[in-house]
Design a protein that fits this description.
mainly beta, Beta-Lactamase, 5-stranded antiparallel sheet
């Protein structure tokens, strides 16, 4: 059985590199979701990347990440769906659509926390960039 290896390095500017694809490791867009997937809040990187503001209407995360439309975020209402955790651990890329119409690929990581007896979901989005040697651009 053949196995494929990928070299991952980091440079002095905090970029992760996997072959010709890199992503910034320090500034993910972070979304805080309710247990039913409604976006409650985001960090400044998430607001900038997705065009989301605190005045935006409460949207379901599937409006930003369409592949989550048919996936239950929580198992038994308690923990993040193990399939989503698996996909994030293997580096599965998801299409992300900003409210301004921008489309790009992102690596997503999921976690859940309990706040005041309610589960909330944290989604970290690392935009994936392709480095062509001359300039880096989002993979679309």
């Amino acid at each position: 059985m053949k196995t494929q290896t990928r070299e991952m390095t980091t440079d002095n500017q905090g970029q992760w590199h996997v072959n010709n694809v890199n992503r910034h490791k320090d500034t993910p867009a972070i979304l805080m979701l309710s247990d039913d997937g409604i976006i409650l809040n985001t960090n400044k990187e998430g607001a900038a990347l997705l065009g989301y503001s605190e005045h935006s209407s409460k949207l379901h995360v599937s409006k930003v990440i369409p592949q989550l439309t048919k996936i239950d975020l929580l198992e038994d209402g308690k923990r993040i769906n193990s399939y989503l955790r698996f996909l994030s651990r293997i580096g599965r890329r998801f299409e992300v659509i900003g409210l301004n119409g921008t489309r790009f690929m992102g690596e997503l990581y999921f976690n859940d926390i309990k706040v005041s007896y309610k589960h909330q979901i944290i989604v970290m989005i690392f935009p994936v960039y392709h480095d062509s040697g001359k300039s880096a651009h989002l993979i679309i």
